[in-house]
Amino acid sequence: MTFVPADFQVPNGIPCPGGTLRLLDMDYLAQDFDAYMSSIERIQRAFDYEVETWPYRGLSMRLALADAAYCEWEHYCRTSFSYCVFTENDVRHLGCIYIHQTAHPQAEAQVMTWTRADGIPEGLDDDLFAFAKDWVARDWPFETLVYPGREHAWADCRAPAFVPGDFKVPEFKQFEDMQLCLLNMDHTRLDYEAYMSNIDHVKGVLGPHFMDWPTPDITPRLALADTGWCEWMHDLKICFSYGIFNADMSRELGCLYLSPTDHPDHDAEICFWFVKDASDAGVEPRFMAFVRDWLASDWPFARPGFPGRDVPWDSWSAV
């Protein structure tokens, strides 16, 4: 199920309290980083988190880039939308509006806003939140909305943790003469080469939500947004993407994805793909057996499922 319809025109560059709303992407990295890192306590209070999370002290510029890349990839996939408020001529970043998917059982989306701690017009925090409520309800294709940290408890809007907070995620794992490594932005070139040279072979492996991926129009910049998305998800422990590389890490042969799921019979969704020459060599059955053993021995999942392999995608998606 898509977050917004395919024909929905996502707004950008519209007037709002304090200035203009612009979709957050990697071009705005420096302004975004300055705004939230100078306003940590204010944002934490605005969102009323039960536990301290983003933004946190010590967050590096590299992870800030991963965060901005995450936003750009989400916009491309149309799975969430993050906006910055800029003053005239984009001189100053005043805050953000987020329109994201929600785990709340009676809502289609959640809306969050924050404003920076210094140098903003009086009343902007309340004005921006009021604007966001009215704008999303009026102009976006959602019937029911929630406002976590403002009008709704975060506990009702946040999905359960995929892994425990103290779980140490394996960064590397050996498989035969291959290396599994958590994907990050350093792997962008090899990752891009692998799937773009195997489009017809890989397409559809990740199920109906990503039936069109990879597409010929994916640019190197979007490839960086994709690996940045992975790196940010790893930092938040929301899901985990591994590149499968040859022994000297000079070529990516495939990827393994460990993701949360709503399926009642499973507590993790496991997907993977290999480039065509590796698939033709018969590696996939051995790799699937390896992953089952690895999950059982090193991961906190009791019932992982392999949609498209041991469960048909139609059955998995229909539940």
Strand order of the largest sheet: 1-2-3-4-5-6
Q: Could you name the CATH topology of the largest domain?
A: Aminopeptidase
Counting structural domains, the number is: 2
Number of strand elements: 12
Overall pLDDT, averaged?
94
CATH homologous superfamily grouping of the largest domain:
Gcn5-related N-acetyltransferase (GNAT)
As a whole number of angstroms, the C-alpha radius of gyration is 20 Å
Strand-pairing-aware structural class: alpha+beta
Task: Spell the H/E element sequence.
Answer: EEHHHEEEHEHEEHHHEEEHHEH
Q: Which regions contain 5 or more consecutive residues with pLDDT less than 50?
A: none
> Separation of termini?
12 Å
Q: Architecture of the largest domain, according to CATH?
A: 3-Layer(aba) Sandwich
Shape summary: globular
Share in helix: 25-40%
Largest sheet properties: 6 strands, mixed
Q: Can you count the helices? A: 11
